[in-house]
Amino acid sequence: MPADVNDVDLLTGLKAARTAPSTSTSRPTKMAYLLLDVQLHRIASKINEHVSSYQHTVRFDTGKLEAKVTSVREMCDARYQSDTEEPLAIHHQANLHILYNLFESPDFKPYNWYTIGLGSFHAFHAGGTLAAVVFNPECYSEYEEIKNLLDLSLRMFASLSIHSALCAKAVPILQQIVKPPQ
Questions:
Q1: Which residue among 16, 32, 45, 101 is buried most deeply as judged by most CB within 10 Å?
Q2: Predicted confidence band at 104 (pLDDT cuts at 50, 70, 90)?
Q3: Cα dist from 107 to 90, 91, 96, whole Å
Q4: d(CA 117, CA 115)
Q5: Which domain of life does this protein belong to (predicted)?
């Protein structure tokens, strides 16, 4: 993985650029977003790998997955919270909102294009992953929890369908999964 430093640090040869990444800095570097994003993609890949495999001999440990996601969220909080009164640069604010995907945040309004477009694409894939898990639940409570998440996803896609062609296409597909014809 690349070092968690700014490009200017590499050019000026600062000590931080030659040493291991430091998480003690109170401000995020330009690489912080990419490094955190890679961690989230690794978690998503593990989910996809498990769901895509036909061998479900090893149960998927959702507790470990939740702990990993929580860990990444805590890293985001630590890297993007400021010790000073100075606000984060706008690109850092955008990166943080993309990492959190804070759709309801008023601060995120200028970035709704991401949530409605590419973010919706990722959300649809997450819905497909949940659907695959719901067909092979470990227990009834897991089935109910995932079914509720799928219902919530369907409602969210339906509400966004007037703004997004992808969401409009996703609604009938998710309806077939969530509420199959009798």
A1: 32
A2: low
A3: 11, 13, 11
A4: 6
A5: Eukaryota
Phi (first) and psi of residue 72, to 5 degrees:
-65, -40
Query: How does DSSP assign 133-177, residue by residue?
Result: HHTS-SSHHHHHHHHHHHHHHHHHHHHHTTT-HHHHHHHHHHHHH
CA-only gyration radius of the chain, Å: 19
Confidence grade of residue 59 (pLDDT, cut at 50, 70, 90): low
Please list the alpha-helical segments (H only) found in the chain.
Answer: 7-12, 15-18, 30-52, 62-80, 90-100, 112-116, 118-134, 140-160, 165-178
Q: CA dist 89 to 5, 65, 69, 81, 94, Å? A: 16, 31, 25, 12, 9
Q: Cα 28 to the chain's mean position, in Å?
A: 18
Angle at 73 between CA 38 and CA 53, to 5 degrees: 50
Amino acid at site 182:
Q
